[in-house]
């Protein structure tokens, strides 16, 4: 069974810093990887989706990379803002069309 | 912008009672998913529909959970009887069709508390 791990579990940074969130998965036979944002008590907002054939995707201050062969992905957030405070989840999609999620990284950006 | 709708947003119930959650996917989306997210964990798939048919319910506790999507549009997830361990966020998602390269779009979720 696919297992997804996210490190660190929690992260606090001062406003303006660049930061990297890490995601690793055990089975490299994936179709895509998605990064989500979840605010407390809310649903999931999709941030970026990387197809298995791609190496990275960018949206504004966010950049996600994928190294499928090593089972790793990173989410880079540039010039962090207090509004970026949330839990960030990564999920991989397998041939069964299921999404397997990590447990998330809880980010706090301190003004 | 099209969104996945869910109701209620919050539900408090006592154990052994029945509860039901409703989901309306993005118009035209053929595939619908129900996930359960326990506090501090990532969501886990409960059931997946393609149109009105169940294509994966291997993780659905069928002794107490049921799900239907009668007309292939909106869906209902039911728990009867509810147990304390069912307290969680229940998330609905949809995608245009079943397939490996489809992005899933999530609703706001229903937060269930079982007392």
SSE layout and pairing:
The complex is a heterodimer of chains A (about 110) and B (about 120).
Chain A: E1 4-7, E2 10-14, E3 19-25, E4 32-38, E5 44-51, E6 56-59, E7 62-67, E8 72-77, E9 86-93, E10 99-101, E11 105-110
Chain B: E1 5-7, E2 10-13, E3 19-24, E4 31-37, E5 44-50, E6 53-56, E7 65-68, E8 75-79, E9 88-95, E10 105-106, E11 110-114
Question: What can you tell me about this protein's structure?
Answer:
The complex is a heterodimer of chains A (111) and B (115). Chain A contains no helices and eleven strands. In chain A, strands 2, 4, 5, 9, 10 and 11 form a six-stranded mixed beta sheet that branches. A five-stranded antiparallel beta sheet of chain A has the order 1-3-8-7-6, with no helix packed on it. The model of chain A has no long low-confidence stretch (mean pLDDT 94). Chain B has 115 residues and is mainly beta. Chain B is built from no helices and eleven strands. Chain B starts with a strand and ends with a strand.
Using only C-alpha atoms, the radius of gyration of chain B works out to 13 Å
Number of helices of chain A: 0
What's the tally of helices of chain B? Answer: 0
Gyration radius from CA atoms of chain A, angstroms = 13 Å
Query: Tally of extended strands of chain B?
Result: 11
| Quaternary organization | heterodimer
Largest sheet of chain A: 6 strands, mixed
Most extensive chain-chain interface:
A-B, 26 and 29 residues
What's the pLDDT, averaged over the residues of chain A? 94
What is the helix content of chain A?
under 10%
Strand element count of chain A = 11
Percent helix of chain B: under 10%
Instruction: Output the helix-strand order of chain B.
Output: EEEEEEEEEEE
Overall body shape of chain A: globular
Spell the H/E element sequence of chain A. Answer: EEEEEEEEEEE
How far is it from the N-terminal to the C-terminal residue of chain A, by CA?
A: 40 Å
Q: Report the sheet-strand fraction of chain B.
A: over 45%
By secondary-structure content and strand pairing, the structural class of chain A works out as mainly beta
